[in-house]
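Supplementary Methods, section 5.1.

A reviewer requested that the exact input to the structure prediction be made available. We therefore reproduce it here, unchanged from the version used in the analyses.
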Amino acid sequence: MSQIRKKSLLASIWTYTGFLIGALNTYFLTHKNWFSTDQNGLTRSMIEISQLIFAFSCLGTPTFLFKFFPYYDDNLAPKKNDILGLSLMIATGGFICTALGFYCLEPLVIKKFSFHSQLLVDFYFWILPMGFLVLLYNIFDTYSIGKGKGVLSSLLKETILRVYTLTIIVLKILGYIDFETFVQLFSLQYLAILIILIILLKKENKLFLSFKISKVSYKYRKKILAILLLTFFTVIVAVLRQSIDGLVLAAKQNLGKVGIFGLASYMVSLIQVPSRGMIAITYPILSRAWKDKNLPEIQRIYGRTSINMLGYSLFFFFCIWLNFENGIQFLNINPDYLEGKWVFFMLGIVTIIELGTGVNGQIITTSNYWTFELWTSLLLTILIIPLSYFLTVKYGIMGPAIANLISFTIYNSIRIYFLWYKFKMQPFSTKTIEVIFISLLAYGISFWFTKNMNGIYAIISSLFVFTIIYVPLFYWRNISPDVKQLMESMFARFKKNNS
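The structure derived from this sequence is encoded token-by-token as follows.
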């Protein structure tokens, strides 16, 4: 096995381990006896605002590190390599400006949030060090990846960070710390993995810090400035789009609604898990196909990823939807979270649309029309921010979900039309209609069969019935050649081992 495959496997192990720990953290934070919905909502709001602080402070430095690391590494002695020092200077300047703005915004925050989300006002200034630590960690993390420490990055971000959060959650549940101390420790979570990262880089003699401007920085100063400006704008747009739902809910509803919305969003993220690896794998293949002008290969990838991700997303969506209420009741989660059922439904449809339209964004990004993806992302942000605000005022917690459905439907329609107009590519086939019909059929039968059941029996029965209808029909109708080939390979291996 090659080093790349070994590293990819290790990174995946840490990612999925972290995912399981994250699920446990979510369970503890939503349990009816340990945290209120407001307290859970506060943790989500702190994360979102700290990401905004990072976006405004970083000034594009992580992308600069990714893009220019080889130029510095190949042309400078380690002790004269100023890429990390330059990034820290730029980001620190950005943070100082952001912190001043953050301080000046305090009266506005008190005015907008004190009535509905007093906890956010009480702990407002603890978000500032959290944002600074997120900023520092991202810079050192990107630098460490350039030094070949990608597995370490996955271990720290995906696993150790969640272990730290789990530890302080357990301390709070057991009564060793109060909620105020919990929030303070929560705001410092990135400090733990930042210290570990710096120690390990120093121990392996891979940490070099120079603040003297090198010949490489001077030579590429115009290109560096251009990429900093472009990615600064891109990062802000992306983070704003991700954070707006929670901020609007905190201002116009309360932190409890943020917590409820957060649980629904987390459940939607479960639908996305199987597709993440598939999306990541397509990038280099698409880049090569564009270089070779191999449009048939791009169309093949477009269609295959569409039907595969649509199949996965429909399966996991209906498994969760069938058991949303029973799952919350069986796990003793605060019954207030039942209000998020239809939020999950709307956000789940958004995810099905996003995944079911294939890797259209990746196809555009790796083509010569990559700036089109930037402009459509900007359009999505322009759509979602006012829609989320006005629909939240009118419909409460359902407002951001409806805003996401409208915005992402328009966003994906534009991308589909663009690829059809430019290259006559589109991701759909008759199999698209078939898999939707199969999923609805399996759902209808499962719902009818288990509608009078409750608790764990309902959960197990509905999952069993849905799976034994959906999976065989998916295989028999050859919805996805990739899945059929994988299943046939597994059957052959099973027969061989038992012969």
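Residues 1-250 form one domain. These observations are discussed further in the main text.
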